[in-house]
Amino acid sequence: MVLGDILETIITSVTSITVALIAAGFFKKFSDRNKENSSKKKLVKQIEKDELVHFTLKEIRRKYHADRIYIIQFHNGGIFYTNSPMQKASVTFERCSDGLERVSDHLNNIFVSHYTWLIKHSLSNTMYYTDCENIEDVATKALLRKFGTQGTAAVPIFDIQEQLVSIMVLDWVFSEIPSDFIKDEEFTGEFKDELVTDGESVGNLII
Would you say residue 8 has pLDDT above 90? Predict the structure, then answer.
């Protein structure tokens, strides 16, 4: 092979490698740009969804003349030494009256085991108290007292597999519970049915 042929072969090889590197860099940038755009779209979509949840909660709070409404969502919070998952809950959405302390500033990564009574009664759709002093569970009563809650109602939110994923809670702090919602010092059946329906509507947005 003459010198000219050798040089031609070398130049061709270098050119091919250069083109390949340039192409690889281009496709990487293209892929990264697509991922970035996809991530932005997902973020925008999630923000729009969250705004819709907040708007819906605001309307529900006003509907029942409550001072606070919030969503408690269940999640994993790590692993115990036994390799079993830590079951925790956090307040992820909240709307409240002006000047009222936010529950979501305090209730994050709470062990589910701390409030089993509250969860159990919400799950069985019996968490309705026009006067929180009538709550027999010490932990639940102390939690509500901490935030000045006088009356409360909570409904469960299930996923499509009928598993409990969230709880929607209404609190009356300094506002009176409208008399239309109460009979013989208890929430009416109509109120409970309507709140369950509203909880299902919120569930459709967050699940």
Answer: no
Listed as own residue / partner, the contacts of 159-165 with beta carbons closer than 8 Å and 24 or more positions apart are: 159/203, 159/207, 160/207, 164/74, 164/119, 164/123, 165/73, 165/74, 165/203, 165/207
The helix-helix angle for 116-123 and 138-146 (nearest 10°) equals: 90
Q: Which of 71, 70, 62, 72 is nearest to 95 (CA)?
A: 70
pLDDT in tens, 174-204: 999 999 999 999 999 999 999 999 999 999 9
pLDDT digits (tens, 9 = 90+) for 151-176: 999 999 998 888 899 999 999 999 99
Residue 162: CATH number of its domain: 3.30.450.40
Alpha-carbon distance of 103 to 36, in angstroms, equals 34
Residue 75's H or E segment, with its range, is strand 68-79
Domain range holding 58?
A: 54-206
The kind and range of the H/E element at 129 are strand 127-129
Look at residue 32 and tell me if it is in a domain.
no
Residue 21 amino acid letter = L
Number of folded domains that form the chain: 1
Please, what is the angle between helix 3-63 and helix 189-206, to 10°? 170
Residue type, 157: I
Q: How many CB atoms lie within 10 A of CB 56?
A: 19
